[in-house]
Design goal:
- The protein is mainly α.
- The chain has a domain of about 100 residues: Orthogonal Bundle (Arc Repressor Mutant), CATH 1.10.1220.
- It has 7 helices and 2 strands; from the N terminus they run H-H-H-E-H-H-E-H-H.
- Helix 6 packs across helix 7.
- It is flat and about 135 Å long.
């Protein structure tokens, strides 16, 4: 019986390579496949958390004045390539310093239309009938008045605390903000307040 060559099959495979079906060959990647998918970036909120915006609701009777104040702050900021927050901080800081020095006094008196009464009850033996008063009709809003108007600026928490102290139980914080900013804007118009605009210092990277 002839002896079988152990390398016969291996030599034949070298001469005739195995045929791979086309379905098993992966398709080459397209340019779109080679492009990386954009991943959603999470915004760094660290600066926002450290410099929060304080928001103050403006009473209806002061909304027109508040809008004028906001426009004036924006105009000053644009003229000096600054932010509205920087202008607001300068204005409110001056007004608060005038309050501390007694140059600006904020006084008020209780408003009977805003003052709320506490209610107590007691039983009566008189049995006198009492009529229930009719609901008062709501007054029509003045033209240009908004339902809600807020002023919001990023200034230190110490400034917000001083505003709270000035408001107390007599004023709303929105009233105090309007009074302070209006006082400083009046000083700016009269020339007793100067705002100097300086270029911001930036740190540039170096390499070697």
């Amino acid at each position: 019986m002839p002896r079988r060559n152990a390398f016969q099959d291996w030599a034949q495979q070298q001469r005739e390579p195995a045929q791979i079906p086309e379905s098993a060959i992966p398709a080459p990647p397209t340019p779109i496949d080679l492009m990386g998918m954009a991943k959603p970036r999470q915004r760094n909120r660290e600066w926002d958390n450290q410099h929060r915006a304080w928001s103050y609701k403006i009473p209806t009777n002061l909304q027109k004045k508040a809008l004028d104040i906001r426009d004036a702050i924006t105009g000053i900021a644009q003229s000096g390539s600054a932010t509205t927050d920087e202008i607001a901080i300068a204005l409110v800081s001056l007004a608060l310093s005038h309050v501390d020095r007694g140059l600006l006094k904020i006084q008020g008196r209780p408003d009977p239309l805003r003052q709320k009464m506490s209610v107590i009850w007691e039983e009566s033996e008189s049995k006198w009938p009492q009529e229930i008063p009719l609901k008062k009709a709501h007054q029509k809003k003045k033209e240009g008045a908004r339902k809600n108007l807020y002023m919001a600026y990023r200034w230190p928490a110490s400034v917000h605390q001083q505003i709270c102290n000035l408001a107390g139980d007599t004023f709303s914080m929105g009233e105090i903000v309007v009074v302070l900013l209006q006082h400083s804007l009046d000083s700016y118009r009269l020339g007793s307040l100067l705002l100097k605009f300086q270029p911001r210092t930036t740190v540039s990277g170096k390499w070697s």
